[in-house]
Specification:
The chain contains 9 helices and 17 strands. The chain is of the alpha/beta class. It has 2 domains: about 150 residues, 3-Layer(bba) Sandwich (FAD/NAD(P)-binding domain), CATH 3.50.50; about 160 residues, 2-Layer Sandwich (D-Amino Acid Oxidase, Chain A, domain 2), CATH 3.30.9. The strands form 3 sheets. It has an 8-stranded mixed sheet, with helices on both faces. It has a 6-stranded mixed sheet with strand order 9-2-1-10-17-16. Helix 1 crosses helix 9 and helix 2 packs across helix 3. The longest helix is centred in the first third of the chain and has 21 residues. The chain is globular. The mean pLDDT is about 95.
Amino acid sequence: MRVAVVGGGIMGLATALELARRGERVVVHERDIVGNPLGASTDRSKVFRFAYPDPFYADLGRRALALWREIETESGEPLLEQCGLLYLDTAGVEAEAVDSALATIGAPHELLDGRAITQRFPSFTVPDGTRAAFDPSGGFVRADRAVAAFARRARDAGVDIREHDPVIDLLDELRNGPVVLAAGPWSPALHPGLPIRTTVQETVYARPRQAAPFAAGRFPVFIEARSGYYGFPLHADGAVKLARHKPVVEHPALSQQGPASAAFVEECRSFWRTFVPELADATIASSRLCIYDNTPDEDFLIGRASSGVVLCTGFSGHGFKFAPIVGRLCAQIVCGEPTDVDVSRFDPARPVRFAR
């Protein structure tokens, strides 16, 4: 059968590849280019982790890991760096929940107090009472490379990827065969009524005076639970990345890329003064905006909507790491196969809505 995948970001490409492996004829309609600078998939790096307080997502990360290694082998390119992830919590409670979730899925884990944190990772200082769950399976995905690798593998498998080819009417597409909507922040405009709000988050890249302490292996990917800040070790260009996962004012899908605000840069410096003092006065090398497609509960929308369209959207700023398993789940739904995991949690018809 012919399947239309609307959206050529990481989720659409992963779904297209899985469908092609099942022998389906797949067309990907991308409104811009693969690697669209305005898309949710685009950046140098995205967090990879098992470290969630919820064992469901911890296990989903575990399942995704094997599939990331598979695409690395097929593409011949290293995409996932497992340099470890430090899940910091100044109150300690959420770190304990993460540690428990890692234990539940049988993954390696350590629960660290403040002294152990700073001994293991000397670049950090932490307030009294801070605890951290250390997830040695965590790290980061080289996001731009991953999108390109999935696109190459999809084309090799026979997928027709059409750039600058926006879809206007999903129901017209449905007349030709199944449709998967994987358009991220552009999904609500194509399928009105979805419980999605789009927001813009800010990201900065800073160049430390001394690079060595921030190299992967010496400096982990980290998340600070209370503030929502998360950061990365050195990228190839010698800069570290800091961003913040937090609710912000609703914003339409980006029409142009832009820099982070001066206010956000100062907020980052304030965070660094508390947690990573060596970075407090680092030179800001660059910054950018990142678009989120948020659901009210931050669970994804994966499943067949009442319209007949298979939804693959609403990833709420934490979906990229799961792309290979999400692609498989969506392909299984399209083809009427049993899914590898229970996807009822992602049911588009679940009763969720935003507070007014």
